[in-house]
Amino acid sequence: MSDENTPQEPPAPRPADAGAPGPQPGPTAPAMTGRQRLAAGLWPPRVTRAQLIVALLLFVLGLGLAIQVRSNSDSSALRGARQEDLVRILDELDGRTERLEDEKQRLEDQRKELENSSDQAEEARKQTVEKERQLGILAGTVAAEGPGITLTVSDPKHLVESDMLLDAIQELRAAGAEAIQVNGVRVVAGTYFSDEDGGVGVDGKKITQPYEFKVIGRPQDLEPALNIPGGVIQTLEKEQATAEVVRSTKIVVDALRAAKQPDYARSSSS
Length: 270
Hints:
Helix content is 46%, strand content 17%. The protein is of the alpha+beta class. It has 3 domains: 45-80; 85-139; 144-253, Alpha-Beta Plaits (2-Layer Sandwich), CATH 3.30.70.1880. The longest helix is centred in the middle third of the chain and has 57 residues, at 83-139. The chain starts with 33 loop residues before the first helix and ends in a 17-residue tail after the last strand. 14% of the residues are buried. The model is unreliable at 1-6 and 15-20 (pLDDT under 50).
């Protein structure tokens, strides 16, 4: 048989060319030292909740032990002190207690003094206000009200003169009248009456009949003072005038006088 029917052997591979490029190895990380590995393991810290709780408990325990040790040290110091030292310490404590008690008593006395001073100042203020009100009533600068009488004098014949009305004022004052006004004019210490054409003048202001007196005082004293024999009522009746007295539990005297500053008189109190 010819060589053509003989199976052919595959060609043997040729060795790679020594100069051809092959796969290159990648770059390698530098090796870490032991200190670097320790630092990497400790930072950043990885703290869990359980670790935090344990740390807090340890802190509290340490604080309690420190306080206990200090207390034991103080107690030991006292136990080891001499009798003279203990007596001195007790004396110092007694002295401190006594000073504190004295300070407490002093503060208590100051508080009571301030309270008394405050009460006295308040009482003085009330008395001052009341005195001012009373003086204002007498001076006619404030209105007043209270029990009293109303005296109405009718003079149809125009025979009543100023001195008759002035007599009525004097009788009422003597009977305890505290505030008086006549036809809307406040009567004060310096009030004067004068005869006017067709009427009577009160402090220069002309008033006409009927003359109405509003008087604050004790009615049981004011009315009898006008009705005494030969007194105001009988004198007016002789002049054909009529006088009517009415008691009341509330008389309002609201006519006011302007406060007048004295020209020469000054308070003598310092």
